[in-house]
Amino acid sequence: MLAFIKERASVxxxxxxxxxxxxxxxxxxxxxxxxxxxxxxxxEQFAPEAFQQHIDLIAKNYARTLRxxxxxxxxxxxxxQEYEAIAxxxxxxxRYLSRRYVHAQGSTKEIPxxxxxxxxxxxxxxxxxxxxxxSPESKDGDREAEKLDTRP
Length: 152
Description:
Blueprint: H1 2-9, H2 15-32, H3 34-46, H4 48-71, H5 82-102, H6 113-125, H7 131-134
Helix pairs in contact: 1-2, 2-3, 2-6, 3-4, 4-5
């Protein structure tokens, strides 16, 4: 799966494009190999150590990719501890979206375009307009008053 996703994302022209292509590739892989979804999530119960190793590897690589996007100026910089949390959030979105839209009612379907658009809207721009929660905390606990970068 990882090689499949990496190959599909390799032609990306930006970090956001890479995220979109990786997202689409994840679902394309599940559509081509529907048994993988069942094996992966059943392993959480039947082979918990292997499952955790897989999740840890994915999260570590994802966090590294997020840090690189920030370093390259294509994403907001966040507290270094947050990259791992963000990676797990994005992984969780994939899991639940695949459960709802790809593996629903015992059949495997392609991911709908509107789901891809919604995912990218959240990933690239966020959803709420609220600087209080988007701004990092300063060392003294007060919120910094910085404008959000709202690049398209």
